[in-house]
Specification:
The complex is a heterodimer. Chain A has 21 helices and four strands. By secondary structure, chain A is mostly helical. Chain A is globular. By secondary structure, chain B is an all-alpha fold. Chain B has one helix and no strands. Chain B has one helix spanning 2-29. The chains are: A mainly alpha, B mainly alpha. At the A-B interface, helix 18 and helix 19 of A face helix 1 of B.
């Protein structure tokens, strides 16, 4: 993708020479060839006369006509093509950016503990990322080509707005490629002593560059949703920071950063499950069981704060444009949040089930197995509350029988206060599973164990009561402002449980007696839970990507560039559902291909015996 | 046994007070002050 952007930036500048003024790179890069819009069409044109000396070089957003959109033959819709390409690029981009983040952490743990297993596992994770990297670039390249071919007017405008920033992206992409290859291929050459620190530094650089790439690309997306740094006709009035730093940029940055890690953890977890089920020796089963556990740990840990980041993003969307927020959560798209609840419920149930199954690795878990049924009941009840819709699609006789469009019991459960309670309790229940799993192979030796446990139980109890109180009282009996504000109170309660749980357990089990764990002694069933995670995560990303993109309604760039293509409407849920399914299945097929390639890289054919033919 | 019950009571009280204080703080930071009984001021 960046190659095309870079090429375009280069080609659209005068004689290929770009003079960049870093204080205002857009205007300076385009100063020679960007001129005021044609008065009739407002479409910037490079054929109109140059501006006079006393005029500020300016361009405005184009007013696109139906004829400005090239059409594909064979009944293929431009939007569908770009949709699939963009989603695939995002899936692989998320994987490629996330894996090196936790690989670096695992590698550092390996250095600190001196346990070579961490190092080997981190290296194996990187093998998946490396194969996925090439596929990411391929989808990125085809996405860029598709955008420039099918939406030339829009892309011309975006290129003029972002201008030199695209070149920065291109440079960073080269740096990302170089550091990625050095990081992976230099693993064994830089394995011990000071060289290991050099290797870790390269990993840090790789992650720094990767994260910067992500936030740059995010600014393109958030500009189309909530444009900044431009006036009402789309002319640039600020510098590149003003353009990038729109109201949704940081919420999207945080949300994608966390979500990518959860997604990456889920995908490599599926790889471990695949290898576990295919393992022929106990040693292999033990290795891939441990790898699967680590992946699930990463995915669930990153997933726990994700709803809060999503909540912040939605709050900012509402703050930017109430109409946009209502389009997302109050109209036809609101039903998709019920589907989202089903998918998140699947993720939490699968993640919990894997942890409960994993307890069979150690006999120490017998102490906690009685608690599992209560956690399961809590999860199921909360899940049912979360998937309860506010409104139902009913016939007239059904409405008459019900006495209105809202059920008198289920109606109150369909609104946000009930769902906020459900989400927070599900997260707390998941953290409890996680905590019990972590404790199952340890026996505390500190004198304050009993007091520590009482404090922990008290925190859980009071947090749960506080979350339910805030949801019920402020959600149903006070005004809207307090209702919304109290959700932060609930989030803080959940975070207090998580943080205090980690702190207390870290101190309590610092010098604990460790009970033996039998890695590899876990049911095959649990491995299917690891497969369920990436499937649900992928579908979830496709679903919410559709929602995020659809809130722009009939605008390419919200309120600035109107979409006049034949697809300038929100696609129906049924059609979108088919598209999401196609991209999810396609991604999973590619993932299987990556797993196969990663296995192939370590497969060695035994030498042929003398006289034996191939 | 008695000391354990006292332990539980004291810890529950302290934790409840911490959460009570947090509730006030979190709402105040959003410009939504609460009365002592946690009802909205506005």
């Amino acid at each position: 993708m960046l190659f095309a952007f870079a090429l375009y930036s280069f080609a659209s500048s005068n004689n290929g020479a770009i003079n960049i003024n870093w204080a205002n790179p857009v205007n300076s890069a385009q100063a020679n060839d960007v001129i005021p819009a044609d008065s009739a069409t407002n479409i910037p044109s490079t054929t109109t006369p140059a501006v006079t000396a006393n005029q500020t070089p300016q361009f405005v957003a184009p007013k696109l006509k139906r004829s400005d959109y090239p059409r594909l033959k064979g009944g293929i819709r431009s939007r569908s093509l770009v949709w699939i390409d963009a989603q695939m690029h995002l899936f692989f981009g998320a994987l490629v950016l996330a894996v090196p983040i936790f690989v670096l952490v695992i590698e550092l743990i390996g250095v600190k503990t001196g346990d070579a297993r961490y190092d080997d596992m981190a290296h194996e994770f990187m093998r998946i990322s490396l194969t996925a990297y090439a596929i990411t670039a391929l989808f990125g390249g085809t996405l860029a080509l598709a955008l420039f071919l099918l939406y030339p007017g829009l892309m011309n405008y975006l290129m003029q707005v972002f201008g030199a920033q695209m070149m920065v992206y291109a440079v960073l992409f080269f740096l990302e490629s170089m550091t990625l290859y050095i990081y992976y291929y230099g693993w064994d050459a830089l394995r011990y002593g000071n060289k290991k620190w050099l290797h870790l530094s390269i990993g840090l650089l790789l992650n720094g560059v990767g994260t910067t790439l992500m936030v740059l690309a995010n600014s393109w997306v958030t500009f189309t949703m909530a444009p900044s740094g431009v006036n009402e006709v789309g002319a640039v009035v600020g510098d590149i920071w003003a353009i990038m730093k729109g109201p949704l940029w940081n919420p999207i940055n945080l949300h994608r950063f966390i979500a990518n890690i959860a997604f990456g953890g889920a995908v490599v977890g599926a790889y471990a499950a695949y290898k576990f089920l295919a393992a022929k020796t106990q040693e292999q089963r033990a290795h891939y069981d441990w790898m699967g556990y680590t992946s699930n740990f990463i995915a669930i840990l990153a997933f726990l704060p994700l709803p809060f980041a999503g909540y912040w993003l939605m709050a900012e969307i509402y703050a930017y444009s109430q109409q946009m927020g209502i389009t997302a959560m109050g109209g036809i798209l609101a039903w998709l949040f019920i589907v989202q609840a089903v998918l998140i419920g699947t993720i939490l149930l699968a993640g919990n089930y894997y942890l409960w199954s994993g307890m069979s690795r150690t006999e120490g878990s017998l102490r906690y197995q009685g608690s599992i049924k209560y956690i399961a009941v809590t999860l199921v009840i909360c899940f049912l509350v979360w998937v309860t819709p506010h409104t139902l699609i009913l016939t007239a006789p059904e409405i008459a029988a019900l006495g209105g469009s809202h059920h008198n019991i289920l109606g109150p459960l369909g609104i946000m206060p009930a769902k906020n309670i459900a989400v927070n309790l599900m997260l707390i229940a998941t953290f409890l599973s996680f905590q019990l799993y972590r404790r199952s192979n340890k026996v505390a030796t500190v004198s304050w164990e009993k007091t520590g446990n009482i404090i922990l139980v008290a925190i859980y109890l009071v947090a749960v009561v506080n979350i339910m109180f805030a949801g019920v009282y402020y959600g149903y009996f006070t005004n809207t402002v307090y209702k919304v504000g109290s959700s932060v109170m609930q989030v803080v309660s959940t975070l207090v449980v998580i943080v205090s749980g980690i702190v207390i357990d870290s101190l309590m089990f610092k010098k604990a007696k460790i009970l033996p764990s039998s890695w590899g002694k876990v049911s095959n069933r649990s491995q299917y839970a690891l497969f369920a995670l990436p499937v649900a995560f992928t579908w979830l990303m496709a679903l919410m990507g559709y929602v995020r993109s659809s809130v722009r309604t009939h605008w390419h760039v919200y309120t600035i560039v109107k979409d006049n293509s034949p697809d300038n409407f929100i696609p129906t849920i049924g059609y979108a559902g088919n598209m999401m399914t196609i991209v999810t299945v396609l991604f999973l097929l590619f993932v299987l291909f990556i797993f196969w390639i990663a296995s192939l890289a370590t497969t060695k054919q035994p030498p042929l015996a003398l006289g034996e033919s191939a | 046994m008695k000391s354990e019950i006292v332990n539980w009571a004291v810890i529950l009280l302290v934790v409840s007070l911490v959460f009570y204080g947090l509730d006030h703080l979190v709402m105040l930071m959003q410009g939504l002050p609460l009365n002592l009984d946690l009802t909205p001021v506005q």
